[in-house]
Amino acid sequence: MQFFYKKKRKNLKLNHQLLIVTVATVVFLMSIIANLPAQSQVNEINTEMMMELPLSTRGAKIIDAKGHQVFLRGVNWFGIETETHVPHGLWKRDYKEILAQIRTLGYNLIRLPYSVQAVGSPNIGGIDFSIGSNKEFEGKTPIEVMDLIIQEAERQGLLILLDSHCLSDKRIAELWYEDNFTEADWMKTWTMLADRYKNQTNVIGADLKNEPHGKASWGTNDLATDWRLAAERAGNAILDVNPNWLIVVEGVEKNVFKQKLPKHWQGGNLEGVKRYPVRLSRRNKLVYSPHEYGPGVADQPWFSAPKFPKNLVDRWQIGFHYISSQTLAPIFIGEFGGRRVDTNSKEGIWQNEFVKYIKQKNLSFAYWSLNPNSADTGGILLDDWQSVDIPKQQLLSQLLPVNFSQVAPVQVEEDTGRILPSISPLQNPHISSSQLTVSSDIYANWQTGFCVSFKIMNQGNTKVNNWQMTFHMKQAAMNNSWNGNFKPQEATQYVVTPLDWERIIEPNQVRNLGFCANKFGSDYQPTEVRVKNQR
């Protein structure tokens, strides 16, 4: 996002005050998702879990190495492009826990913004090491922090799209060179990253330049301003080093010959692609990427038009989607977002319409943002960096695997780059009653903590009206939980009772619950997990 970027940045002041995490929002969120209709998402989930890297394109589709269509469902986690030189929120939480939450919420991709200045800097900030987390980052440079985040994302089954968001830490430049950085600086950074991560299979590509605008043009053949030509130069240089990456090219703002719409968002104008397509050495690596926002960012004329919101679909078709509908190349929505998701305000109406459009057109996307400290859009997380903005995530869940809490974590096979599912926890059930079974899965595990999910299934022919789960846990202490009342009892035992909405379990229905915890020793895993009917 770049339009009024200074406005977004003014809320980036670090807050190191520790807050008590409120679990109620997470509990309520999981209840919403668990009760959504399953529809026909199972095959889509299974396809994702068997994704084989690297990715490429065919017509309007992004495909894996076996030719299966892939849908990228991402979030933007910003911060490396700012003065901290690391993703934000590390003053509140461990990065592994944040990555685990992204995966649990149903996303499979992180668009990771950086600045050229940060990548070349020796200094990091914005991490509170006193909270006992992120110890691996002490003494590291920004690029070394990026390495660790990418490696952990791979372990947790998350893809990474690198985004050259800024040249300097201060602002987003109009062009790919400015602020005392040359085109050579920009391209050298990209080729360095392409080489550094060419064996890191979960890094899938390069978003070449965030939101070209102002003087940036398309199809003018002016070497100083023609973004299309610059994208070709950088994209081909990257592919020479790393032929596996996708090359993601955003639009411009204006200066497109015979453009039909008088005004666009910065980076959102791809009208010039039809006449002047980007020409890469590997045509099956090209993805176009518009950005789209609502009036919460800037009150554009089309939000006040008499036909609003019916005028939006025509704008999107003219501005970028004709590329997909004419099977010229895939479309990846690199950014969209806003604070309002209601059906009364203009921003809420716009955001609901755009989510519906993305779903109808089967587009890939990365939401802006995970961070709550984007001033004009807010984030998926609230200001405590842990609780979820429930209405926003409920809206976005239309674009995610519906029963995301039931998706097993995935791992990347080292030799082939294939993303493989771990053993399904339902294949290894714990002790149960004759009607109920319970299984557990530690889906995130790091040096100082872990997260575990439980799945309780009714295998009988009649509904269960109430239930209780128990387990033992020694050298660990919970820091948050969801979808259940977790109560410590005598010694090491925990008793879990359902929330009101989940007491009843119909035949073949699964209830999902879980917690994250801090480790105090090696004997931390839950044991003796049991579930029984409460009559």
Concise summary:
The protein has 535 residues and is α/β, with parallel strands linked by helices. It has 11 helices and 23 strands.
What this model shows, in words?
The protein is an alpha/beta fold. The protein has two domains: 5-420, Glycosidases (TIM Barrel, Alpha-Beta Barrel); 425-533, Immunoglobulin-like (Sandwich). It has eleven helices and 23 strands. It has helices at residues 5-9, 24-34, 42-49, 95-104, 116-119, 142-155, 183-196, 227-241, 312-325, 346-361, 390-396, and strands spanning 56-58, 61-63, 73-76, 109-115, 159-166, 203-207, 246-250, 286-289, 291-293, 332-333, 335-337, 364-367, 410-412, 419-421, 431-432, 436-445, 449-458, 467-472, 476-482, 485-488, 493-497, 510-519, 527-533. The strands form six sheets. It has an eight-stranded parallel β-sheet. Helix 8 (227-241) links the parallel strand 6 and strand 7 (246-250). The chain is globular. Residues 2-49 and 402-429 have low confidence and may be disordered.
